[in-house]
Amino acid sequence: MLSKEDEEKINQIIDRYRDDSGPLISILQEVQTTFGYLPKDALFHLSRRLKIPESKIWGVVTFYSQFYLEPRGRNTIKVCLGTACHVKGSDKILDKLRKILGIKEGQTTKDLKFSLETVRCLGTCFLAPVMMINNDYYGRLTPDRVEHIVNQYR
Amino acid sequence: MAKVKIKIDEKEILAEEGSTILEAAKQAGIDIPHLCYEERLSPPSSCRLCVVEVEGVQNLVASCAYPVREGIKVKTNTERVKRARRVVLELLISNHPLDCMTCEKSGSCLLEKYAYELGVTSSRFQGERINYPVVSDNPFIERDNNKCILCGRCVNVCEEVQQCGVLDFARRGFATLITTGFNRPLTETACVFCGNCLSVCPVGALTEVERKGRGREWEFKKTTTICPYCGCGCQISLHTKNNTVVKVTSPPSAPVNSGWLCTKGKFGFEFINSPERLTDPLIKEDGKFKKTSWDKALEFIASKFKQIKKEYGANFIAGLSSAKCTNEENYLFQKFMRAVIGTNNVDHCARLCHSSTVAGLARAFGSGAMTNSIAEILKADCILVVGSNTSETHPIVALQIKKAVKNGAKLIVADPRKIELTEISHLWLRHKPGTDVALFNSFMWVILNEELQDKDFIEKRTEGFEQFKKVIEDYNPQKVQEITGVAADDIIKAARIYARAKKASILFTMGITQHTTGTDNVLTLANLAMLCGNVGKEGTGVNPLRGQNNVQGACDMGALPDVYPGYQSVEDGRIREKFERSWGVSLPDKKGLTVVEMIHAIEEGKIKGMYIMGENPFLSDPNATRTLKALKSLDFLVVQDIFLSETASLADVVLPAACFAEKDGTFTNTERRVQRLHKAINPPGLSKADWEIICELSRMMGYPMHYEHPADIMKEIASLTPIYGGILYSRLGERGIQWPCPDPSHPGTPYLHKDKFTRGKGKFHSVTYKPPKESPDKDYPLILTTGRVLFHFHTGTMTRKVKGLNMIYPEGVIEINPRDAANLNLSEGETVKVVSRRGSVNAKVKITDKSPHGVVFMSFHFAESAANILTNDALDPVAKIPEYKVAAVKIEKIRE
């Protein structure tokens, strides 16, 4: 069950999109920003409030990889596996991250500090190999630089 | 619609502009293979199987999405096209279990059909395969995602037709699958188990749980007939094997339901082959039923009826006919009562549902039936639904309403309960039970005040307006707000929407009729429709939705104490003479007794014997304790039924009858459509069709009735009944005929009162508001209102023999508002004692805001929580309908 405060937070988000047509994705993004992920109860509430069937909401949140149904780490690490990064050895960067964090891509550390993801391209091929932590870019990486960078976010 | 000339496979075709190649080809009898396209749904255009070549267009085009243009040349079956289709099929079967030898769908699977036609035996494409567990989370529908081809038909039907949105696509790419929100079991979703997803599934992904292992598609005998549940009159196809019904489908060409069904029509057939069916005539000896032969049973009945007739007179016998039986059977039953017994004491359950409609509309318009057709709902700009929980009681009519609203019609719902339709309504008027006259008089106050009435119509087509107008002056919305609890503003808004609509249709059921002011309520709605000229036009009207499959027909056939077939009065000498001549006996000239009057007459010793065919008055009549006592005190009771119902168990003789699937005949649905019933299987044991039983009993009584087939009975009906004058079996075909149909060349009548009301001019009645007979007070502080639920039917004689329906809705509950529940300290699921002045029953509490504050709701389907022990047998003075919708009750906690 959602707490009264959480319900109120969601209602405020919905209200902001009152005049938009087809606001579901924007609302889901804001709800996710608020809670860090999409709690099921929040989605049930959205379904009732927006009069959108649960099946449709489920379809949207499972279609887009940007939506998370499980709690996320405080920091999200995105390792680019695009062509340029691949050529420049991004697999080694990923391997190192797995080792440091003790998780695989798609997982979150037990202490909820990090979530590890891979992406196809971050649009910064000139920095290859590259990773992002939250909104920061780290380019021209080598495996031995990784730990130091990650530690700044602990 | 403009036409364009096109060529498909060298054939010149005149196609409708705006149609697609696939539609045009279909019209011309050319079948283009397709999987995702379904003619009744919007096309997803995703399967690519329907590709064709269009001259001058480089790529193949999807014919389901490509509109026709003047002069285009299409080829549907070239090598190139076939090659492309084979690739599509190969891709599909590369990830499809090829277990056709055990698949339930085999024989009606489209994937299989097209693979066969295009010679696709295997796939070049070998790769990853999906492997999902089969989902079997409910009693009706099994989902095997491994067989799903992601055509999306089920998603569309759920969203567009049933508008539940239970299924949708989830995930993406190879992992895409169709599932419920959060992968919940269907029983925890908004699913109403209509099974329409299953009926459009082209492959074996969705199948009926019940049919599993019970036969291959090609082994089934398919018989087209009519659904035995509500008055919608849906056409169904019974699939039978070894005299057993295995599954039910409905053809897309079905006139009323376009192939869509509700949960009862689709899954509620298990009762037919139930081991509890009556198989032999039974005679009660020393309080116990003993099997006997037909001859003995009928001889005994004949001698008893003769004895009562001799000792007391014919009017000491009464008969209840059945809205479940065919027209022909109802005709014979009333003929038997009138010509053989010699009494007009014949009635049936229509008394308890729509007698006030028949009385009211006959007075106002001259005909007591639904004025317009179900399909016309789509043509209305405004739909006013009053006292009708349409989605549960007439699910297929509700589909039309939902579709109309989706297309832009305005929906106004007036109902004390928060029924499903309130979720899509533009305005919901939650009035107090029994205040309908005040509410709609106030509508008319607004309309007259703002001069929104149809003056031309009033002047040319109606009478009684001036007097009526005076009465309305007392009903200004501010005052009516006090009576009804509906805000004056909402009354004004609603009245404007109704009056300003070009075409407005009123739909109503028992929320209007089952009151001591039932006839007044109906007259008020008739006034409203006439005031705005909403009668005699397509898409308008005053439309009572009839409850039973053949309640319209049973009324038409004169299973009523005051009229012969076709509503011809028994008190009219000339009419009586006509029937006397035809039947060769003299007939009684006084009106007989109505249902509840019969019960009261038994108490007074004025009825000694009764013949009840296919009714269960013990559970269906108001004040059940009194009914039970009366029926027990009869000298002689015969009950003819398909089960040993609660009433049958009280009988001296029980006669086993055939059910709808086991006989020929006709039913007349709520929109006056006479439709043909076809025999699919043989009746169990010694049971016989009701018409055969009546004929034999009649012979025993010394009045031979000879009919080879129900068609012969219909000939006799047509000869005596002007509105059925042109109803002949040879004319009924697959679409039936809507009466009035006066002669064999008449096409039937979709809507009534076109240029002239049946009675000449429409009559305004001056109706004033009267409160219900029983109001809540200190001792009985709550209003009990009764009704039906989707998953059961009437006294449950049929639906409670269906396992699945009972799993979904196992027991009677009392629905109560959260505030009332808190005041009484009740918790969800707790069993309580519900008490009225007439009796008490136990029921489980269901806390829901569906019930308004101060009002509780119970259905009357469950003998264990029989709502009619509580209801009031106070009657409407005109129609003699009891006040099922308002009774004062209290709730007592049961101490552990």
Secondary structure elements and pairings:
The complex is a heterodimer of chains A (154) and B (896).
Chain A: H1 4-16, H2 24-35, H3 40-50, H4 54-63, E1 75-80, H5 83-87, H6 90-101, E2 114-119, E3 131-133, E4 136-138, H7 143-151
Parallel strand pairs in A: 1-2
Antiparallel strand pairs in A: 1-3, 3-4
Helix pairs in contact in A: 1-2, 1-3, 6-7
Chain B: E1 3-8, E2 11-16, H1 21-27, E3 51-54, E4 61-62, E5 73-75, H2 79-93, H3 110-118, E6 141-143, H4 153-161, E7 167-170, E8 177-180, H5 196-200, E9 206-208, E10 221-226, E11 235-241, E12 244-249, H6 263-267, E13 282-285, E14 288-291, H7 294-311, E15 317-320, H8 327-341, E16 346-347, H9 350-353, H10 355-364, E17 382-386, H11 390-393, H12 395-406, E18 410-414, E19 427-429, H13 436-449, H14 455-461, E20 462-463, H15 465-472, H16 477-484, H17 488-500, E21 504-508, H18 510-513, H19 518-531, E22 541-544, H20 551-556, E23 563-564, E24 568-569, H21 573-583, H22 595-603, E25 609-613, H23 617-620, H24 624-632, E26 636-641, E27 653-656, E28 665-668, E29 673-677, H25 690-700, H26 710-720, H27 729-732, E30 737-738, E31 762-763, E32 782-787, H28 803-808, E33 813-816, H29 818-823, E34 831-836, E35 839-847, E36 855-859, E37 872-875, E38 882-883, E39 887-893
